[in-house]
Amino acid sequence: MRRSLGVPAEAADEVSLHTQVSMTKLLAVLALLVVAGACGSDPAGSLPTLVITTTTLPGATPTVAYSQTLASTGGDGTYTWVITDGAMPAGLTLGAATGTISGTPVGPSRSFTVRVTSGDGQSAQRALSITVTPALVITTTTLPVATPTVGYSHALTATGGMGGQSWSVADGVLPAGLTLASATGEISGIPTGPTSSFTIAVTSGDGQVAQQVLTLVVTNALKITTRALQSATPTVAYTQTIEAIGGAGGYTWSIQVGALPEGLTLNGTTGVITGTSTGSGSNFTVQVASGDGQTAQQDLAITVTALPVPLQSVSAGALQTCGVALTGAAYCWGGNFWGQLGNATTTDSDIPVLVSGGLVFQSVSSGHGHNCGLTTTGAAYCWGDNDHGQLGIASVGIRTLPTAVLGGLTFASISAGAYYTCGVTTIGEAYCWGDNGAGQLGNGTLADSDVPLAVAGGLTFQSVSAGFNHTCGVDAGGAAYCWGPNNWGQLGNGTHTSTSVPATISGGLSFQSVSANDYHSCGVTTTGAAYCWGDNFWGMLGDGTRTSSSVPVAVSGSYTMLAVSAGSEHSCGVTATGAAYCWGHNSDGELGNNTNVDGSAPAEVAGELIFQSLSAGYAHSCGVTTTALTYCWGASYVGQLGNGTTSDSYVPVLVHFP
Questions:
Q1: Residue 63, domain CATH
Q2: Element (H, E) at 283
Q3: Residue 625, Cα to own-chain centre: how many angstroms?
Q4: How far apart are the first and last CA of the chain?
Q5: pLDDT above 70: residue 31
Q6: DSSP-derived secondary structure for 407-476
């Protein structure tokens, strides 16, 4: 038996007790560890793994609200969401607690990485992308022109949107005969209706809608409207425009068959034929093509006439014109109903015809339906209408050839009015004959006369002018007189009282010449100042107003005039420099300024021609240039312009001689 260490018995009992307590605590701790492991307090090994189950996201549409919630499994079910890389499309946000992506996208498509963290500390990531579909836009902004009776097809186009497109007309209607295919956006058919504007709508599969206002022009069929061309004259510049209507997109002109006369060319863009002819006339076929693919053709011809006959003077009447060549031969053109062309026929002519009889004239004057001329010996001849004895041959009835005026008088000048005629002899005596219903013969009576009668008053005249039914003249001292009806103040004496004998014009002006026509008169003073008086309804007094005047009023513009000619409802004058001006009525282009707009002040005649004399008729005007070429403009109902056509002209056209 081992020997005792000498520990008291009480101490040994205390040690044994402490040992037991320590063992008990150790066992308790081990028990707690076992219990803790059984309860799953280990995060890595006891809870499901956290996973983001959303693998793709639906596309977004600009301006359309977007909402999509991300989904995940695992962890403890309490999640926090965050973008860890990249960015979502502008306008969208991610709800950290809900995982919901929401907003209204305005930005482009984007790719990004999203991470979710669960309450137990697990986390998971997923790479995602959101495609932002472009906004739906109709890219068709204009439509090709359609042509009646011609098949039409054009597909509308749009960009953006998703899932197909559906087309419709949201407002207005397509031109009759055309339809819109809903599935394809094609407008097709054969148009028969007029141009129209309408609103097109397109809807994409993702719900977007776009609209566009369009206009579909339906043109008229292309057609060349020019049916005849003016004749050309050798050595004279030629310009003629071929006209067309219909089509769209501009014209292109060409000669398809034949050729133009040598020296002339066709402008392919404007359709203008220009040049100076050096060859003979020709026939040809011209074609015009429009920008919308239409073509049209027309057979035309240009006649090259002989060189113009140089004239020394010209006189425009009502429907006819006459002139005297440098050789003294007389020519007339236009209406010939009463034989006023003097060629032994009553056939109209749109080019000059030689007055028969072989007479050598110094001057010719055209009236309403008759003409009179003076030979170089001062003998007076008249031809044409003679219902009132205006031919002065002691009988009535038309004459188609020049017939000598009776009385054996030797005249220095002669003037044919509407239905009467006046002249001044070489000794200054004035005579008139024909219609006298308004006292226009000036002999103190109202009786017609078929032979010349002296104008009352014993005045010595240098010239007289016979109008419609009033007459004016200038005496040897420059005093002006008028007689006849005065309802518009056309006698210029400050009254509206008619008189059958000469009455002095008011104002004390000294005139070198006067001119009378329908209801107004004009004159030029010895200083070159122009005055007019009488009716001013169309502005033919030229003073810038339309107020009639019974006394002379100055023509505006302060021009120095060589002469002024009063027409029916317009007036024309030529300045000292040869410039031509016209004013008054212009419905037929009688002012020659390339318009048909009336004017109450002088407007320069187009063409920059230099004239030596002018004559204003009923609705046309004519003049002779300093190179003896004759031009006319205005109405040409029966060919009174003398250019080979019956087409009116707003600008001077050269008189063509056969």
A1: 2.60.40.60
A2: strand 282-290
A3: 32
A4: 178
A5: no
A6: T---EEEEEE-SSEEEEEETTS-EEEEE--TTSTT-SSS---EEEEEEPTT---EEEEEE-SS-EEEEET
Question: Could you tell me the CATH number of the domain that includes residue 261?
Answer: 2.60.40.10
- Return the biggest CA–CA distance within the chain: 206
Helix/strand/coil (H, E, C) string of 516-558?
A: ECCCEEEEEECCCCEEEEECCCCCCCCCCCCCCEEEEEECCCC
Check if the beta carbon of residue 293 is closer than 8 Å to that of residue 317.
no
Cα-atom radius of gyration of the chain, to the nearest Å?
A: 52
> Residue 24: its pLDDT value, please?
46
The residue length of the chain stands at: 658
CATH of the domain at 464: 2.130.10.30
pLDDT at 117 exceeding the cut of 70: yes
How far is 517 from 488, CA to CA, in rounded Å? 12
Tokens of 488: 């518009």
Residue numbers of the domain that contains 468: 313-560
The 3-class secondary structure across 315-355, one letter per residue, is EECCCEEEEEECCCCEEEEECCCCCCCCCCCCCCEEEEEEC
Pick the closest to residue 461 from 450, 471, 473, 469 (CA basis). Answer: 473
Using pLDDT thresholds of 50, 70 and 90, give the confidence band for residue 194: confident
The structure's pTM equals 0.60
Copy the structure tokens of residue 37: 């492991």
pLDDT tens per residue across span 72-107: 999 998 999 999 999 999 999 999 999 999 999 987
